[in-house]
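User: Structure tokens for this complex, please. No commentary.
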Amino acid sequence: MKAIHKASIAAAAVAATILGAYLYFLSSSRSPFDEFAGMRVGEGEVGIMFLGTSAFIIRTSRHAIIIDPAAKMSKDDASSLGTVDAILITHEHGDHFDASSTFDLHRANEAVVVVNEGAYASLEGLIRGEGKLVLLEPGEAAETGGVVVKAIASNHSGLSPLMYFISMDGVAILHCSDSGFVPELADYAGEVDVAILPAGGASPTASPSQAFKMAEAVMPKIAIPMHGTSAEYGELRSALESLQGVQFLELEPLSPQVVPVPP
Ligand SMILES: [Zn+2]
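Assistant:
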């Protein structure tokens, strides 16, 4: 009797080990895009994943957008996200935009594609659905399924390059592409929850000091650095310590997280 009891305990232990290994395998084989899609994002929170350079996927309680994906996502990655309301392209430079990849992402979930003039030229023959390709000039705005996007002129090269101010589910996000500072940002003072700021990298217009001026103009609750080296992020982090109420948040690429927006 005792021997049988021991044997069944051993069998249960083996079964638990196999189950544990299987669950570990399942969790480790999930892509960051699956993980992002599975996150619960409540009211007053932002789900965000940095893909490198200026590329982000952002979710609020009921909406999702992709910004400047270049060729950093596959059609399958986009499909695994479920509903995506809009894909925003700030400008046509290759580290922000790839025409055929953008077309694939659009086809994955029929997201509306919002672009500047330079990117529009490469997409107008590809994206033909009614209202699916939206060209914005600086100062213009578009609304798609509850996501409001305002275009701000970027201080950068290209054909009418843009920055975007996005409102979704009560959360306001500013994405500054790889722009230098522009005085028009002062129009958004106190209105920005999350500012995504270019710290330099390959951009001739962006730098830690230009990003600091952007933060100083809008005073975001959260400042996320992008488009820069880790040294440039460090420089921006130190500079922002002088701005009270601005929380610096450096994101690891492909590490999705849910960030509460301070009240
Ligand atoms: Zn550029």
